[in-house]
């Protein structure tokens, strides 16, 4: 992410781990990977808590994502 002056203000990296999957092939790391910064040794600036409703997964499905991981508890459990 960049601010209005094109200064880099945030990076987003993620890793996907799914139990029993694999065989994806390709490189296991990226040349674009950046080292993480250590967490600050202080209290957080803010804590935000959100509670989702029991029908949250069904509502999310309305976005068009029909992946059973999001709606089927047995499928989600198998994925870890």
Features:
80 residues; mainly alpha; 2 helices; 16% helix; extended; (3S)-3-hydroxyacyl-CoA dehydrogenase (NAD+) activity; 3-hydroxyacyl-CoA dehydratase activity; MaoC-like_dom; 17-beta-hydroxysteroid dehydrogenase (NAD+) activity
Any overview of this molecule?
One of its GO terms (molecular function) is 17-beta-hydroxysteroid dehydrogenase (NAD+) activity. Residues 39-80 form the MaoC-like domain. The chain is mostly helical and 80 residues long. It has a domain at 47-80. The protein is 16% helix and 0% strand. It is built from two helices and no strands.
SSE pattern, N- to C-terminal: HH
Main sheet, how many strands, which sense, barrel?
Answer: none
- The count of β-strands is 0
Individual helix count: 2
- Strand content range: under 5%
Radius of gyration: 18 Å
Describe the secondary-structure layout.
Blueprint: H1 56-61, H2 73-79
Q: What is this structure, in a nutshell?
A:
By secondary structure, the protein is mainly α. It has helices spanning 56-61, 73-79.
């Amino acid at each position: 992410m960049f601010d209005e002056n094109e200064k880099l203000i945030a990076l987003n990296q993620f890793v996907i781990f799914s139990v029993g999957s694999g065989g994806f092939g390709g490189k296991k790391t990226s040349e674009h990977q950046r080292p993480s910064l250590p967490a600050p040794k202080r209290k957080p600036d803010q804590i935000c808590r959100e509670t989702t409703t029991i029908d949250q997964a069904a509502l999310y499905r309305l976005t068009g994502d029909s992946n059973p991981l999001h709606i089927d508890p047995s499928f989600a459990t198998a994925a870890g």
